[in-house]
Amino acid sequence: MNASLIRYELLLLWRDRGTCTALLALGALVVLALTVSAVQLSRSDAARAEVAQAERERWLGQGEKDPHTAAHYSVYAFKPAPALAALEQGVEPFVGQAIWLEAHAQNDALYRPQVDASALQRMARIGPAGLIIGFAPLVAFLLTFATLAQERERGTLRLSLGTAVNVRRIVSAKAWACWLLLLIVLVVPAVVLSLVFAGVGGKLTGDVLLRALMWLAVAAVYLGVLTALGMAVCVRSGNARPALTVLFGAWIVLALLVPRWTSTAANSIASLPSSQSVRQTLTEEASGYWSAEQGQQQLAQLLERHGVTSREELPVDARGAELDLVERHSHQVFDRVLGGFYDQVIAQDRLYAQLAWLSPAAVLQALSPALAGTNFQHHRFFIDGAEQYRRALVNRMNEDVMAHPLNGDQPRHTNDIGLWSQIPPFEHLPPGLGQTGASLSAPLLALLVWLAAALALLVRFSARLKP
Amino acid sequence: MSAAKFSAMYGWELRRNVRSTLLWSVLLILCASFVFGALSSSRLHADREQAQQRAWAEQQDWYADLQRRAQEYAQPGPQVPYWQDPTNVAGFSRYFLFAQAFKPVQPAAPLAVGVADLAPDRLRVRLETPFAVTPTYDFEHPRLLAVGQFDLAFAVAYLLPVGLILILGLGGTAERGNGVLRLIASQPVSPVRWLGAKVAALATLSVPGVLLGLLLALGVAGVPFDAAAPQIGAALLLVTAYALLWLALGFVVLSHWSGAAGAMGALAAIWGMWCVGLPMLADSVTALRAAPQSVMQIDALRAATDEVDGNTRAVIETAFKQRDDLRGHEEKIAGLDYSTRWTFLAPALEEQLQSTHHQHQQSREAGARWSANMTLLVPALAVLSDMAVLAGTDIERHLRYERQVRDYQLQLRDAIYPRVQQEIVSPTPQPAGVQGRMNLLDYDFLPTFQMQESASPALAVVARSAGLHLALALVLMGWACARLRWPQQL
After folding, report:
1. DSSP element (H, E) containing A99
2. Strand partners, B201
3. ipTM here
4. Going by C-beta distance under 8 Å and a sequence separation of 6 or more, which residues neighbour residue B384?
5. Distant-in-sequence, close-in-space partners of B118: CB < 8 Å, separation ≥ 6
6. Which residue from A171, A226, A224, A173 is spatially nearest to A462, judged by alpha carbons?
7. In this complex, do B370 and A58 lie within 8 Å of one another by their Cβ atoms?
8. Could you tell me where the beta strands, DSSP code E, fall in B27-145?
9. Which of A190, A236, B438, B474 has the fewest CB atoms inside 10 Å of its own CB, making it the most exposed?
10. What is the pLDDT along chain B (490 residues), one digit of tens a residue?
11. Taking CB atoms and an 8 Å limit, are B139 and A48 in contact across chains?
12. A102, A264, A279, A342: best mutation site toward chain B, by most B Cβ within 10 Å?
């Protein structure tokens, strides 16, 4: 590698007004998207924190009441935006940000940021990572075209190659220059800015820094694949027109067609059961309300469990015990039905990552949200964390009802802030990279295979290059 | 030497393009994309229709079970608690009412996914839900939503121009690339006629090819051509105008006599500006403005519920005093069950939430209006929006659906609440010794939901965009023709 040669190639590229304008325009869009995204996320985080605080105050200040009624009143759990969500939105705009943790039900996460989006908002919802994944190929191919194919058309390439001691060094310097320019204009500012925004939001941790650095490395490899592919095509083509056709076609296929196609295909191959059927199963197997007949069966079960023959003989409160019985039964149903459903969602992501081998852009579509902590696997931690919190809260309330047997006609047992304050505030702890890293191996391998293949092509074609 | 006629040049170009592998390859890829897009949206709509049918069957089963239980509870036995008793009108109103509102899938739905992947088309209507609509939804894989749907509208709005760019950029600059343009320019032929013949020949093959691809895609996706004829006709017009706009843009770019790289670079830049840059900039304008945060609705709802709960007695007393039939019966308030109390509290809760709800609705409608305005500047957005309207998957139809769901909730309240409240002052006598309360014996009085569709003809939907695109195409062509000269240096 010759630094002065690379500097020279960088200078030549910088002087190519058309190509550099396209690169800078894309860089500017990346920064704009990142800033807008960061501002929106910071606002929604502030709103969530405010409502979460109000919820906590409402929970503590709900006054004296029946603990099971308190479990129905309950609280909402809010999900703070992941630290790198401004860089890679991932699924965040399409998953609920709040869950009502009421008794008897594992509710869906609601209030999805994009739920009310207009056609314009859907069209414009392409974050910094989306811009880099979708449009860096076009700019990379333009750069490689400008540095090789156009030079060949002008005749300046022949001159360079004719005077070069080593032809590969010329090609290598051109490739390094293209890659560096892409990296410096598109990726580095995006990563640095997203770390700054994470720091301002108080979310900059070691894990976040590691994720950002890995994201940078992966994006750098992606740009390397694109540069090598672009250079290989330009080196291989005898003149500019076929090179242009292949590069433009490659952008359409690799960046526009394949990522959406693989995503849609994964959804068709491993289709998910409909929400309607999932909800119907939950209603049938774990309804929050039960009939008089079911109530009698539950009471019989309790009497048998405690070895007594009448409600009045029960050592615990019959209503509380019945509520607890139903609640714990529902946990098994939720784990099986909803847990199974979410497993299927994650399995479909894995299938997508396998199909993504078809295009480096699709590979990055799978990797980028996984690294930024914005894929469904990370969202699942929020769903599961909130559900565990809900179960602990409801179980504690039911235990308190059970512990005060009133199996006659007395008024219901009540409790107050002494009990409510035993429930700590909900806090979502996003998983570390180590907890989710296993899912990264397949797409990382795919990206490295793409890099190796692209470099191999470039080396092979460069060897044939003659002045 | 006589000047070559347009028809002769056009015929020659046409014959040449018929043999063009590039042209047919691009058209084939576009056609395949249309078919894949139509099939994927058709699959989504079919899933939704099946879910609606299952939900309707579930509702029928539910009421059949209620009838069975009502018969059982008409037998002697211990009294069933009101919340377990479907023959108790108060208990029914809160615990047994199963009313749903379906947004029907339209015949031309495979044209676009629109908001169908985000917005629900099946809402369970409960009497006490403020303003009827909850933020529930049918789960679509969020990755699919994040990567974007590969539907027919995407293929038309994004991929069609890219295909045309490839055809124009390579097919329209062949003479420039191989040096023949110098020879042509030396002949007694007008550049307008020559370039016009080239682009017209490309248009003659590519536009019908694209339209045939669209029809094929709709056919494969199972669109009923008779039922959806107006929508299909309008879609064909829309796509024709959009394709002609891109061909006109291609004419303008080619009129600068740049090579393939320059022409494709310029067209790709316009594509990038229209499909990505401009929408992002337009959205940033609204995104940076402080809009109401959706989670604040939770705060408002919880605070209003607390407020109403804390003043239950006062709220119900006020309602009693305002009603001729209830005035003077205030002593019965303390004995009212939870469901009956809610017949008074639900409207009071809505009153508390009115301003938040109004603010939220205004924000959504403002977003939809801004998007509609931006269709004037962003042709791809106009195509996406209009195809969604033709498919019946646009945001405006969804907002209409929500308004009708709200009306339906009010109809249900009108049907049920008076019956519940009548029991306060003149309770239905209960047959001695039976298990059920027996003041509600059939459910046929409940209204059902039927969505009323907008009467706008399909052609009117696309008239603005298609007209604008055609007009813009003509202006661009006219402008390019007026300044078109052979290049000074070749």
Report:
1. strand A98-100
2. none
3. 0.90
4. A119, A123, B112, B153, B154, B157
5. A94, A112, A114, A115, A117, B137, B140, B145
6. A171
7. no
8. 99-102, 122-125
9. B474
10. 566 788 999 999 999 999 999 899 999 999 999 999 999 999 999 999 999 999 999 999 999 999 999 999 999 999 999 999 999 999 999 999 999 999 999 999 999 999 999 999 999 999 999 999 988 888 999 999 999 889 999 999 999 999 999 999 888 888 877 778 888 888 888 899 999 999 999 999 999 999 999 999 999 999 999 999 999 999 999 999 999 999 999 999 999 988 888 888 889 999 999 999 999 999 988 877 777 888 899 999 999 999 999 999 999 999 999 999 999 899 999 999 999 999 999 999 999 999 999 999 998 889 989 999 999 999 999 999 999 999 999 999 999 999 999 999 999 999 999 999 999 999 999 898 999 999 999 899 999 999 999 877 778 889 999 999 999 999 999 999 999 988 876 6
11. no
12. A264
A43 with B293: Cβ contact below 8 A: yes
A residues 352-381 lying closer than 8 A (beta carbon) to B? 352, 365, 369, 375-376, 379
> Is-contact B121 B52, C-beta < 8 A?
yes
Q: How far is A30 from chain B (nearest CA, A)?
A: 10
Q: What residues pair up with B123 in beta bridges, in sequence order?
A: B101
Residues 350-409 of B with CB under 8 A from A: 363-364, 367-368, 370-371, 374, 378, 380-381, 384-385, 388, 394-395
Task: Judge contact between B5 and B192, C-beta under 8 A.
Answer: no
Burial of A57 by CB count in 10 Å (0-12 exposed, 13-18 middle, 19+ buried)?
exposed
Contact residues for B360 (Cβ-Cβ < 8 A; gap 6+): B292, B294, B297
N-terminal to C-terminal alpha carbon distance within chain B? 23
Contacts of B465 (CB under 8 A, 6+ apart): B238, B241, B375, B379, B382, B383, B385, B386
Cβ–Cβ gap B147/A263 under 8 Å: yes
Tokens 């209960």, residue located: B430
CA dist A440 → A225, B301, B310 (Å): 18, 41, 52
